[in-house]
TrEMBL record:
Residues 340-473 form the GGDEF domain. Residues 19-136 form the Response regulatory domain. Residues 482-736 form the EAL domain. Keywords: Phosphoprotein. The keyword Cell inner membrane does not apply. It comes from Massilia cavernae. The keyword Transcription regulation does not apply. GO terms for biological process: cellular response to nitric oxide; phosphorelay signal transduction system. This is EAL domain-containing protein. InterPro entries: Biofilm_reg_signaling, CheY-like_superfamily, EAL_dom, EAL_sf, GGDEF_dom, Nucleotide_cyclase, PAS, PAS-like_dom_sf. It catalyses: 3',3'-c-di-GMP + H2O = 5'-phosphoguanylyl(3'->5')guanosine + H(+). SMART domains: EAL (SM00052), GGDEF (SM00267), REC (SM00448).
């Protein structure tokens, strides 16, 4: 039965035998694999990640590595590539084991990285054991050959006795003059240790570190330093010399054997890991030490690499959040410094998602690398630039003489990022939003400073981007309100707290109701309502708008179904689709499902979209809108004139109606500019064969202007506020509005 070594432990293969390294980020899969392979005569070590596997390989050799392909962080392919980069593990067999349906390309990639086998789960336990046993047998054979070769070389070098001879301690050929060929009488332990480690760095030292014997490996590596009357400490790095001298003195006084790591100067600087053992000497003789050392330079380099990767962003090479927090903590704990102010700048690339969506993530990565270089050029040597995820960067400015310096750096960064960026033949013009928090006024801890800088960055982005904003306490209050509102929205969605109201749209020719717009209301326990202008933007920011919009669609379908069953004249209900909902691949099928579930004609469910939501991806909008329109639904652009519609796209889109935003209607009878804008929109819509709806109509003068100038439909408090289901039915049954007489009973 095998000994099972926990992946977190330091256990090595039993009796120096071969071991198996299992690498998988699924704890259940690791348990199952270890249970299956436990019948094999080998120790089993587990690693839950590629990083952990690399660390295990630094400390221990294995007969075979069984590696999962799909893992978080370092996947199997990247782990295999790093394993193959180490000379010591260049030929260690790697078996890819995966339940993933790999393509031919995946398999080819695995074999190109040096995979010995590619096994797909599920696999019969006996088959898996037979395959792994092959590698265990091969490892045992190679180990036996290696031991025999070392022994032969040792005999030839005079370090081991021939059969029948007494043991001796002899220097290898080329030893330094004056170093004894034999150890002092009674040093059998020294002879045994030297013989057992013939392939390593082995030295016999006096208690003061003087050379008594040096193996061939020491002779080759340190040449002139290994001289008669020389000292072992001469090859030790000056920074480590006192530590090794103290260790030698303690051992000479009878302390227990020790294992130490230190640097040495040879043909190249190296790291050695040495075991220091006090050997037997006759009573009264000078104490002697055997030093058995291994070169661990490669391990140290790999450890340094793993540590570097743990504290740096792999894409840009910048410090990551962990290293940033450490440096920020170091700066904020020393308030007694002459200039204690520290500025933290949170930087976000505006609309970065559009680059990924349009040019692809590879192009987005190159943009981030370019931005990181520009940020580095904007700061001093002692400042820190970090990437903490996505397109979020942080700059730490310690030791500020003047807080205004943070504003100067922010301006410099905004200008640097705004310079043209050429990626894959495209010239990109980026903008950035920056939030600034100052220690100690805006926070006494690293976490608080980062949070407040992020809040300030949100305000800069909300104000249009391409600017910076200093943190202010009022921002924290607003952030707390947003957080509370987001949590309340989640509860409202789960508790179905919303209600749907309906505002009539009136025909400008005869005053009849030609449709309704569905408007969501959020009632509160005290009878008040939270305004949609308050909760809708937060719902959009937090991603909660999608379930709210889906609920609104279902409610509109149910209400149309009710009207149909009650024999009420059918008029359309328009529902606002969020940008998130519109960009879902399933939006057309979702709308079709609502219509079919309600058993209504598609023409009775209208779709309203804002300009911004529509034009964020014009090519996709064309395709999606055509699918919706082909189903028989009418489409309106809401708040027209407030966004940035492209006329080239507008004429290609199957739009039926344009809704003039209330901000233009409000002053059409007093402001010539607004009147001209409204007339231009009406003319444009009619040229493109679209109908026009004016929102926010509140006065008879506005009604007269709109009717006179050819507006098709009107909507606003002049006719009616948004009403509940029953009141909407009452409006339908009441008949047309008198366009010449304000219906005061319906106004608020």
């Amino acid at each position: 039965m095998s000994a099972l070594a926990d992946g977190a432990g330091e256990a090595g293969p039993r009796d120096g035998g071969p071991g198996i390294l299992l690498v998988n980020d699924d704890a259940g899969a690791l348990f199952a694999l270890r249970a299956i392979l436990s019948d094999l005569d080998a120790d089993i070590v587990t690693a839950p990640s590629g990083d952990e596997a690399l660390l295990r390989l630094l400390k221990q050799d294995f007969a075979v590595v069984v590696l999962d392909v799909k893992m978080a962080g370092l996947d199997g392919f990247e782990t295999a590539r790093l394993i193959r980069k180490r000379p010591r593990t260049l030929h260690t067999p790697i078996v890819f084991l995966t339940s993933h349906r790999a393509t031919d390309l995946d398999r080819a990639k695995g074999y190109a990285l040096g995979a010995a086998d590619y096994i797909f789960m599920p696999v019969a336990p006996e088959v898996l054991k037979e395959k792994i046993q092959v590698y265990l047998d091969a490892a045992r054979t190679e180990a036996l050959k290696a031991r025999e070769a070392v022994q032969r070389e040792a005999v030839m070098a005079g370090q081991l006795p021939e059969q029948g001879e007494a043991p001796t301690v002899a220097a290898a050929p080329g030893r330094a003059p004056g170093i004894p060929e034999r150890g002092p009488p009674g040093c059998e332990d020294a002879e045994r240790l030297i013989a057992e480690h013939a392939g390593d760095f082995v030295a016999l030292l006096a208690s003061d570190g003087s050379w008594l014997y040096a193996s061939a490996s020491y002779q080759r590596e340190f040449t002139l330093s290994v001289q008669p009357h020389g000292n072992y400490l001469d090859i030790v790095h000056p920074d480590d010399r006192d530590r090794i001298r103290s260790a030698l003195a303690l051992l000479a006084d009878g302390a227990a054997p020790r294992r130490l790591q230190y640097r040495v100067h040879g043909q190249a600087d190296r790291y050695l890991e040495s075991e220091f053992n006090l050997v037997c000497v006759p009573p009264g003789a000078v104490a002697q030490l055997v030093v058995v050392s291994r070169d661990i330079t490669e391990r140290k380099e790999m450890e340094a690499y793993v540590v570097h990767q743990s504290f740096h962003d792999p894409l840009t090479g910048l410090p990551n959040r962990l290293l940033l927090l450490d440096r920020l903590h170091q700066e904020t704990v020393h308030r007694e410094r002459l200039h204690p102010n520290v500025a933290v700048l949170c930087i976000d690339i505006d609309h970065f998602k559009e680059i990924n969506d349009t040019l692809g993530h590879a192009a987005g990565d190159r943009v981030l690398q370019d931005v990181s270089e520009r940020l580095g050029a904007c700061v001093r040597d002692g400042d820190t630039v970090a990437r903490i995820g996505g397109d979020a960067f942080v700059v730490m400015l310690p030791g500020l003489h003047d807080i205004d310096h943070a504003a100067l750096v922010a301006d410099k960064i905004i200008a640097a990022i705004a310079a043209p960026c050429h990626i894959e033949g495209s010239e990109l013009h980026l903008t950035s939003s920056i939030g600034i928090a100052i220690f100690p006024d805006d926070g006494a801890s690293a976490d608080t400073l980062l949070r407040n800088a992020d809040i300030a960055m949100y305000h800069a982005r909300r104000d249009g981007g391409g600017r910076f904003s200093f943190f202010a306490p009022a921002m924290q209050e607003a952030a707390n309100r947003r957080l509370a509102m987001g949590a309340a929205l989640q509860r409202a969605i789960a508790g179905r707290e919303f209600v749907q109201y309906y505002q009539p749209k009136v025909c400008a020719t005869d005053g009849s109701i030609c449709g309704f717009e569905a408007l969501i209301r959020w009632p509160q326990p005290d009878g008040s309502f939270i305004s949609p202008s308050v909760f809708i933007p937060i719902a959009e920011e937090t991603g909660r708008i999608e379930p709210i919009s889906a609920w609104a669609l279902q409610q509109a379908g149910s209400e149309l179904q009710r009207w149909q069953h009650e024999g009420i004249p059918a008029v359309p209900i328009a529902v606002n689709l969020s940008a998130l909902q519109f960009h879902r691949a399933s939006v057309a099928s979702d709308l079709d499902a609502v219509v079919k579930r309600a058993g209504i004609e598609p023409r009775l469910l209208e779709v309203e979209l804002t300009e911004t939501g529509l034009m964020s991806d014009p090519a996709l909008a064309v395709e999606t809108l055509h699918r919706i329109h082909d189903m028989g639904m009418e489409i309106a652009i809401d708040d027209f004139g407030t966004g940035y519609s492209s006329l080239a796209y507008l004429k290609r889109l199957p739009i039926d109606k344009l809704k003039i935003d209330a901000s233009f209607v409000r002053d059409i009878t007093t402001d010539p500019s607004d009147a001209a804008i409204v007339l231009a929109i009406i003319t444009l819509a009619h040229v493109l064969n679209m109908r026009v709806i004016a929102e926010g109509v509140e006065t008879g003068e506005q009604v007269a202007f709109l009717v006179k100038n050819g507006c098709d439909e009107m909507q606003g408090y002049y006719f009616s506020k948004a009403v509940n289901n029953d009141e909407a039915i009452g409006l339908l049954r009441r008949g047309p509005f008198d366009l010449g007489q304000p219906p005061t009973e319906t106004r608020t």
